[in-house]
Amino acid sequence: MATTDDVTKAVRKYLEEVATGTGRSIAALYAADATVEDPVGSEPNRGRAAIEKFYSAIEQTERSTDLLAIRVAGNSAAFHFRVVTKVGGQTMTIEPIDVMTFGDDASITSMRAFWSPDDLVVS
Amino acid sequence: MATTDDVTKAVRKYLEEVATGTGRSIAALYAADATVEDPVGSEPNRGRAAIEKFYSAIEQTERSTDLLAIRVAGNSAAFHFRVVTKVGGQTMTIEPIDVMTFGDDASITSMRAFWSPDDLVVS
């Protein structure tokens, strides 16, 4: 079983990759059969190929991420974070709360992102 | 379907009841067949009677709650909050992240609380 420390490190690594990585490098943090439901209520992306495609949409943007709060319970984590994305002269800021589950090797087995369009701030 | 506003109000009402209510009044916010998994990974309390028993443990304490952040996605919410509990001269502070789902009438259909013992601060 992944420890609290393993899970926290895996979340920090994920946010680092979301800020600096590619669709492929972010998807590599996920288990082969993982699911990504973003936002919660949408049809989940299933499997690493679909997950890579999902994240590849952000490759052409300039991004930064900050971890605001994290709570770990067993092999699961809930965390509040900020993503700032610059696209075409506009800055989009959103601070979702994500829930992730992890395998024994600390790979991400599922991600669910809680946010709604009202939470997006464009400046 | 409950609106974002309905869900946010239901979370605020829940935190108000956790601060000032009884096991019965808190359980009344839940659907009859709801589940409470607190912390995530523990055996869930199933049904309103079990939920009432779970919350009645806090009736003899002096408590306050504060909502720190909430994100709503459809009929679900994730929220970060603070609970301060005074028992026998000690003050216990914990700031979990909870995930709730809601019915169309904004009753709580499930609650999962993300925290670990390390997150409890005793002063």
Task: Describe this entry's structure for a reader.
The structure is a homodimer of 123-residue chains. With 123 residues, the first copy, chain A, is of the alpha+beta class. Chain A has a single domain, classed as Nuclear Transport Factor 2, Chain: A (Roll), CATH 3.10.450.50. Chain A is 25% helix and 44% strand. Chain A contains three helices and eight strands, in the order ααββαββββββ. Chain A has helices at residues 4-20, 23-27, 48-56; strands at 30-37, 45-46, 62-73, 76-87, 90-94, 97-102, 108-114, 121-122. In chain A, strands 1, 2, 3, 4, 5, 6, 7 and 8 form an eight-stranded mixed beta sheet that branches. Chain A starts with a helix and ends with a strand. At the A-B interface, β3 and β4 of A face β3 and β4 of B.
